[in-house]
Design a protein that fits this description.
mainly alpha; about 70 residues; rod-shaped; about 95% helix; about 0% strand; PA3496-like
Amino acid sequence: MRNVERITSVKSELLDIFMSMEVDEHVERRRSAAQRSLRARRGIELHREFQKLSRDIAPLADDEQESELH
């Protein structure tokens, strides 16, 4: 009877360890996904900022070329 109790205890500990590992892996995957999402969002924001700057600067470059011609 003592061996059965011991086996049950070991099984329970192994299950607890396995579940803990699963939870840790899940947390790590969520954290990694959140970081990837933030990097992607920032990349999109930077791309839009550069596009806006290009549009804002383009008329200035045209004005400079016209003033050089006159």
